[in-house]
Amino acid sequence: MKSIKSYISALLAGIVLMASSCTNLDEELYSDLTDANLEGTEQEILSMVGSLYVQFRFLYWAWEGYFDIMEESSDCLMTPYRTYGGWGAQYINLHKNDPYAGIPHLYQEWYYGYNAITKANTLLQNPIVQKNEAMVAEVRAMRVMFYYILFDLWRNIPLEKELSDDPAYQPVQAAPEDIWDFMTAELEEIIPVLSTDKSYGRINKYGACMLAAKIYLNHDAWLKGFGMDAGEMVAATQRNESSEWFKTNAQNGNKWYQKAADYADIVINEGGYSLAPNYLDNSRCMLNATPEAILVIPLDEKQASHNYLVNKCFVGNGGKAYGYNGTPWNGSCAVPQFIHTYDVDDTRMNDTWAIGQQYYYGTQDPIYFADQKLTTQGLSEAEVAEGIHLTYGHKAGDDPLVYTVEVHSIDNPGAFDAEGARFHKQEVVAGTSGTYGNDVCFFRLADAMFIKAECLLRMGKNEQEAADLITAVRQRAFATTDPSKAVRTVADLKGDSVYDYGVRENTKSGKNPYEDFKYADPSDMRSVAAEKSNFTDFSRDDATTIELGGLLDDLAWEFVGEHHRRQDLIRFTLDNGVNVYNGKTWFCRKNKLDSQTKPTDYKNNVFPIYSEFIKANLNLKQNYGFTDEAAAE
Predict the structure, then answer these.
(1) Among the four residues 215, 357, 391, 511, which has the most C-beta atoms within 10 Å?
(2) What is the greatest pairwise CA distance in the chain?
(3) Radius of gyration for the chain, computed over Cα atoms and rounded to the nearest angstrom
(4) What b/e sequence results for 323-345 when a residue is b if at least 16 CB atoms lie within 10 Å of its CB, and e otherwise?
(5) Is residue 432 part of a domain?
């Protein structure tokens, strides 16, 4: 068991004892603590409350969980088919903005979210827990956390505030404004009484302030399509017209942005947090040493292991660059266009992505695809001279393991073995089984600083302060290269994005597929974006600009792989009124909404509800416009 502050040992013990795997949800410790045998000790209550954090861990890192759905539907990270097969079509649908109700990713968040809400309601009705005001506030805060995630993903969700005694009870979907009113009222009431102690793995006052800031920040983006004129977009038949939900920032004097900024300000000025000296301090296996972490999801390699990024991202031999002796599965990689957005002096690029030749941990000898080199027997001398081998792809002979930036396609034919920069931001500790025990930094100080900066820019007030906040976060990324590049001006942040949006697909599949991509400087494949001639399907998005496009870029460079990007892309809009998520194309994401032909079609701002949940509860109505099957392209 890894060493964590002793005063939360009871909580972590509850977490790892109550749920040791994704498939075993038996919670003997929790079920043994009944009203009849509870004495009300701190350890007993901590063990009970620990059940909520178990569900939080499952929701985030159960297979096809929250990390995937927030990142793989974005313009930064993807999981393509590999040309030898493998990986499911659900990843392709997320990338192409073609979600359907059968995608397994839609199961985890709903199931574990409502499992946690049920547990929270059970705790809040327990007389022993009710006597502990601080614990009640903590349970209520975590209940809002789960509603925040569910609301962001689906909008049309049931609102369950207490348990039902009816064995035949089936929840119904509430109106969006009812969920909004509940979340905001809960947080406004409990934040003043929440503890300010920094208990590792538990939400405190400042974690709840971050949650409130997120909720207020995203209000206008969530409202689109779910106002009074929503029609079929809203499942509920009754609407509460008096709710402030229906008022945008433009209609209420920027009330929501101001509230988001105020709560972020509490975290920045009162929480006692500071930026970590190094960017990767927030992605270490253990996060109890970083001064930046506000809310952490604790994991443990042996008893609470979930973080499988080491296997999901690297080529089979690729883990050997980090001292990992397992065999990764070769899946996820970067969207090439995103890699080309980085400044060459931004150290976050190398901190986040593995690109180019890989070397053995410790020796720095070059790694090859296969340790046993394959023969060239039967090939002509000319073919051998060209570097052609009997096998090309899954085990590419004596080819060195060199990750390229460019990728052929998401599924036609897919990506060749070494295509795509690999996400290695999460620390791989040499000699361990990879990232399985890595803690997750769910909220951190840089996020609070970005929220405040964004709100100031959107309100048009104290804009230089906003630029200073972003500059402060960027300084560690340029400290050893060119410190002057850390400075972001107001004009930079309010300018357009540098992301070269448009379709980039290459369906060529020659004997040596890597020759399909030409580089101006072959020694540095990340220095120049691929040219149009390299692709069988190439487009460059029209001249629509992104509001605060420079800030959107900075959000990606700082928070890629931290469950940010989908929400950010939905919140930022183009000058034609469509958000970036639906209005831009990238790589093989070709479908986009047109503000002229579909000005009110916001259905893809949310996901369909998993089909099995719809079948199991006749009271649930599927989100508008979605079916059980993927749409034909």
Answers:
(1) 215
(2) 83
(3) 25
(4) ebeeebbbbbbbbbbbbbbbbee
(5) yes
Q: Residue 85 is encoded by which pair of tokens?
A: 């097969």
Inter-residue contact 160 to 118 (CB < 8 Å): yes
Contact 53, 337 (CB under 8 A): no
**Over the stretch 424-458, which tens digit does the pLDDT of each residue have?**
999 988 887 777 778 999 999 999 999 999 999 99
pLDDT at 381: 74
Tell me, yes or no, whether 264 lies in a domain: no
Q: What is the pTM of this model?
A: 0.90
Helix, strand or coil, per DSSP, at residue 462: coil
Domain membership of residue 209 (yes or no) is no
Q: How far is CA 593 from CA 68, 410, 576, 605, in A?
A: 23, 21, 11, 11
Determine the Cα–Cα distance for residues 404 and 358; give it in Å rounded to an integer.
Answer: 11
Q: Taking Cα atoms as reference points, which of 263, 177, 258 lies closest to residue 222?
A: 177
Instruction: Enumerate the β-bridge partners of residue 359.
Output: 366
Per the CB < 8 A criterion, the answer to whether 461 and 342 are in contact is no
Q: What angle do CA 234, 208, 494 make, to 5 degrees?
A: 70
Structure tokens that stand for 15 in this block: 């977490």
Best CA proximity match to 273, nearest among 488, 447, 477 = 447
> Using CA atoms, how far apart are residues 107 and 115, in angstroms rounded to an integer?
12
Q: Which tokens in the block code for residue 529?
A: 């974006």
Domain with 417 in it: 78-86+303-438+495-595
pLDDT of residue 44: 75
> What three-state secondary structure class fits 480?
coil
pLDDT range class, residue 40, cuts 50, 70, 90: low
d(CA 436, CA 353): 19
- Residue 1 CA to residue 12 CA, distance in Å, equals 10
Residue 408's identity, in one-letter code, is: H
Q: Which residue carries 């049931």 as its tokens?
A: 158
Q: How confident is the model at residue 543 (pLDDT cuts 50, 70, 90)?
A: confident
For residues 503 and 501, give the distance between their C-alpha atoms in angstroms, rounded to a whole number. 7
User: Taking each helix axis from N to C terminus, what angle separates 549-559 and 463-478, rounded to the nearest 10 degrees?
Assistant: 40
Q: How many domains does the chain have?
A: 1
Tell me how far apart the alpha carbons of residues 633 and 631 are, in angstroms, rounded to a whole number: 6
- Percent share of the chain, pLDDT over 90: 64
Structural domain includes residue 101: no
The answer to whether residues 474 and 486 touch, using CB atoms and an 8 Å cutoff, is yes
pLDDT in tens, 319-373: 999 999 888 899 999 999 999 999 999 999 999 999 999 998 988 888 887 654 4
In sequence order, the 6+-apart residues with CB closer than 8 A to the CB of 287 are 293, 296, 439, 441
Q: 54 near 111, Cβ under 8 Å? A: no
Angle CA 419–424–427, to nearest 5: 160
Q: Could you give the CA distance from residue 438 to residue 228 in angstroms, rounded to a whole number? A: 44
Cα 262 to Cα 27, 99, 206, 210, 258: the distances in Å are 39, 36, 12, 10, 6
Least confident residue range of 120-129, 525-534, 585-594: 525-534
Distance CA 157, CA 146 (A): 11
Q: How far is CA 565 from the centre of its chain?
A: 6
3-state SS string over 356-405? EECECCCCCCECECCCCCCCCCCCCHHHHHCCCCCCCCCCCCCCECEEEC
The CA distance from 576 to 391, in Å, is 49
